[in-house]
Known about the structure:
By secondary structure, the chain is of the alpha+beta class. The protein has one domain. Helices cover about 25% and strands about 35% of the residues. The strands form 3 sheets. Strands 2, 4, 6, 7, 8 and 10 form a 6-stranded mixed sheet that branches. Strands 1-3-11 form a 3-stranded antiparallel sheet, with helices on one face. A hairpin with a 2-residue loop joins strand 7 and strand 8 (about 140-145).
Amino acid sequence: MLPMSVEADLLKAYPIKYGAPPYRPYESLLVKDxxxxxxxxxxxxxxxxxxxxxSQQKGKTVKGHKLLSKMQCKPVLRATVVDHFFPAAQHVLxxxxxxxxxxxxxxxxxxxxxxxxxxxxxxxxxxxxxxxTLGEAGLERELICLDKxxxxxxxxxxxxxxxxxxx
Length: 167
């Protein structure tokens, strides 16, 4: 059970500069197909859905590149959502993952933000996405390579709310 103050934080609307350039921890890390836009997302954390494909739900693994192509028609979230909350307000995203862990009954959940794809300038054929892992050490932010297989612990961040405004 989450504290009442955290539950209240999940219902608030947070204005996020959705079209802003995402955080890049390394200069050699580039963003695929990125064009800066003046988009503002009024993000309500309670509208964050953690999605699994049918294959993942059945206990199978899915290659990251296939997962990316399957999710193109869904409202997947960009890395700028992570940028907004991390590290200062990471308790909001941690609460979303904790609720999902309680719901599914297992830990080690990873949340993938497929709306922003990264690559290194010396390896343009290898793609990465922002991810958040909730483990025993707490919430960790990482780049996750799409060359790997993803199982039922790897959820896709999908937004089920309104609130995207383009200037």
